[in-house]
Amino acid sequence: xxxxxxxxxxxxxxxxxxxxxxxxxxxxxxxxxxxxxxxxxxxxxxxxxxxxxxxxxxxxxxxxxxxxxxxxxxxxxxxxxxxxxxxxxxxxxxxxxxxxxxxxxxxxxxxxxxxxxxxxxxxxxxxxxxxxxxxxxxxxxxxxxxxxxxxxxxxxxxxxxxxxxxxxxxxxxxxxxxxxxxxxxxxxxxxxxxxxxxxxxxxxxxxxxxxxxxxxxxxxxxxxxxxxxxxxxxxxxxxxxxxxxxxxxxxxxxxxxxxxxxxxxxxxxxxxxxxxxxxxxxxxxxxxxxxxxxxxxxxxxxxxxxxxxxxxxxxxxxxxxxxxxxxxxxxxxxxxxxxxxxxxxxxxxxxxxxxxxxxxxxxxxxxxxxxxxxxxxxxxxxxxxxx
Length: 387
Known about the structure:
The chain is an all-beta fold. It has two domains: 48-71 and 82-251, Jelly Rolls, CATH 2.60.120.10; 253-380, Jelly Rolls (Sandwich), CATH 2.60.120. It is 1% helix and 37% strand. It has one helix at 342-346, and strands at residues 5-8, 27-32, 40-45, 52-60, 74-77, 92-96, 100-105, 114-117, 121-128, 131-135, 138-142, 146-150, 156-160, 167-173, 213-222, 225-233, 238-243, 248-251, 270-274, 277-282, 285-286, 306-311, 326-330, 351-352, 356-361, 366-367. The protein has a seven-stranded antiparallel sheet, with no helix packed on it. Strands 5-23-22-25-20-19 form a six-stranded antiparallel sheet, with no helix packed on it. Strand 19 and strand 20 (277-282) form a beta hairpin. The longest helix is centred in the last third of the chain and has 5 residues, at 342-346. The radius of gyration is 22 Å and the shape is globular.
């Protein structure tokens, strides 16, 4: 989100001498994307960020595709996945292609090491949980319903409340993640009429400066592998920074739904876009208000698009048989729509309390072998009315 932000102490001009109280200098680091032409921030470190004493390869996280290639609609119950572990090491792959991969995590412990995703921007939907995202840019408080955007290369660490269960849907985007272009003017400001604006964006608020020597790990993801780089000092040693490149949060509960007299198509729910995919938020809202309106979506065949929905509540206007944590995949090539009775039941209703995150991809998704055992194998038959 291109909003200028600054924390801590910075020099008056870029690339000028910035001295410590003992006469030494702070070490300036540019962190950004697309070389020197994309969004970036300048950080001022107590120690050089390149002081690495050890490098070790930890593991390979490349998702393995399921062998069953049958084209059909699918439903997965992520509540049946093992809970616990690390927010980084114990992510379970769900669906993936060259543009985006979806992962699930339900951590119950903190990582001691920091983490840097060197191959993707991350969008984390915190369906359950609360805590703090620590980073070189300061602390960012997070809570249930937050989208947390972490651009690639950002050194960070999750500190979630261990007294509350955490559930995370993680999207890794090979391209830059951004707000929809049609919501912004030529200067990058969100337009009047957009479903959210800059007041809804939360940025790092407190900069904790650590001048500590020792051995501190940063786990780096690159080429689908995790590697640990051991620094000779604490990585959060920046005394100040400024720029446009940093982690930020936006609550799904601050998304303002757009409604109409008759049913509005899913693009009105769009919240983010990436290269080859979009992300939409289905939130509590009034239903269509014409007396003859059919609030449930019409049947559709979305050519050149795979549709994924993560259900953050058990209510959804067009679905039955889903619950919190369900994920449905409706692939390109076959029609889908409301299940039997859902269209008729929606007529005359005034409100929905549904809460869900949808990801539409423009290239086919592969299904990870890791979720084969949590599939409802008969979901594709659920459009047959048995009543």
